Automatic annotation (TrEMBL):
Its main location: nucleus. GO terms for cellular component: CST complex. One of its GO terms (molecular function) is single-stranded DNA binding. This is CST complex subunit CTC1. One of its GO terms (biological process) is telomere maintenance via telomere lengthening. Signal peptide: none annotated.
Length: 324
């Protein structure tokens, strides 16, 4: 199995995960575990098998559950963070062996899931909050779109949502047109009701409270749609630059400013917006991607692991590594 989203992370830590899963033929004792879902990842799209991770709190312990069997991927849609579930016929495993040695539970073909108790999830109120807070959950409505392709939206007219670091790699953030079979990352629309779990709360530009999602985060849209598990990539120049170099939030803001500058200056010459905003346009590189690639040609491209962003206790995600 290749690393998560090989286009950007072929040499990342996720390759280590893929190479160190225990042999399927090893004998293991099957276990049942029960607890509260403290966190749920998106379904990360891989070349061979998509997967998602659950953090389950049981008494004073936390356990990680990795779901990668195709027939069990639909479980993701029914799992509600904060509620209690029982998982049967599970087996223990270790991933990232020799470096992190993270203990997890994996499912078997006989595994089942059942909700044992429903609990109300506490969403955060950001009124009168000035400091940056790690991993809060928020419920809001999209009131305007800042950059749809790059995944930046305004909620409730006062909160900025940055989903850019999850775009292109999460099955739930891709939509498919049944008629044309075309896929798009432009999933969200004005009026959509969203629940955002485990996002970073920052004081962003223009004093706006900003929710930035990383590999630990989950975005739930109340509007019904089916996740897309197969490999796909958008043609957004900003997302391409963002995932190739992995330089964090300030880099994303710079890319958005660069695109806006190109549009305002070059659009007077009646050049199509697609030539500026796209990664590829009529067989040639889009202007944003071409410019960034040239300017940063001597810079080392950073690797990123979505799995470790979710699993590591110190939560060393891309936002903490390149904090402003």
């Amino acid at each position: 199995m290749e690393a998560i989203f090989w286009r950007y992370w072929k040499k990342s830590e996720d390759q280590l995960f893929c190479n160190t899963m225990s042999c399927k033929k090893c004998k293991s004792t099957y276990l049942d575990i029960e607890g509260r879902v403290a966190a749920l990842s998106h379904t990360f799209r891989m070349i061979e098998n998509p997967l998602f991770i659950i953090e389950l709190e049981s008494n004073t312990d936390s356990h990680y559950i990795l779901i990668r069997r195709k027939e069990q991927l639909p479980w993701h849609k029914k799992i509600i963070p904060g509620s209690f579930y029982k998982f049967t016929h599970m087996k223990k495993d270790i991933i990232f062996k020799g470096k992190y040695d993270i203990e997890i539970f994996t499912t078997t073909q006989d595994s089942c899931i059942s909700k044992t108790k429903e609990d109300d999830y506490e969403f955060f109120s950001i009124e009168n909050v000035d400091e940056c807070i790690e991993l809060v959950s928020y419920k809001g409505v999209i009131t305007s779109i800042v950059n749809k392709e790059a995944g930046i939206f305004k909620l409730d007219g006062k909160v900025l949502l940055v989903a850019s670091f999850l775009m292109e790699v999460s099955s739930e953030l891709v939509s498919e047109n049944p008629a044309s079979k075309e896929m798009s990352s432009s999933l969200f629309c004005v009026g959509d009701k969203l629940e955002i779990y485990k996002a970073h709360l920052l004081k962003g530009r223009e004093g706006l409270h900003t929710l930035v999602c990383c590999g630990r985060s989950l975005i739930r849209n109340h509007r019904e749609f089916s996740p897309v598990y197969n490999f796909w990539k958008s043609n957004c120049g900003i997302l391409h630059c963002l995932h190739v170099f992995n330089f964090g939030l300030s880099f994303l803001y710079w890319l958005c400013d660069l695109e806006t500058f190109f549009l305002n200056v070059l659009f007077k010459n009646e050049r199509p917006q697609e030539k500026i905003k796209s990664c590829q346009w009529k067989g040639k590189k889009g202007l944003v991607w071409k410019y960034v690639e040239e300017q940063l040609k001597d810079c080392e491209k950073r690797c990123r692991s979505l799995l470790l962003e979710f699993l590591l206790s110190d939560h060393s995600c891309i936002l903490k590594q390149f904090a402003e």
